[in-house]
Amino acid sequence: MSDSHPSIEVTSEKDLRRLDVSLQSLWEKARRVSELVVRLKRENDDLSKQADQMQQSHEDLRAELILKQQELQQIKQQLLQLQSNGSDLFTKEEKEALKARIKELIVKINSRL
What we know:
mainly alpha; 2 helices; 90% helix
């Protein structure tokens, strides 16, 4: 009877070694998973911050666009008002300078023909 007892211990030691190896393998896998989770959380945080920054930038640009559209609308209204009042877009001096420039260009074109 005492002979059977040592064989049980040997078998148990082999089982314990296999169990130890399995546990070490499992522990290593758990460690790698934990590292991966931590890395992915950091990446997620970084991406979340970038998304927030992009959202803020989008909102800022949208607000700026709205202001520009309002400004453009005001300018259009002013232009229509000036045109309806008979006012010209150019002052008398600007008209004369433009006429002179057009005459110069016509002379240059004619001289090349």
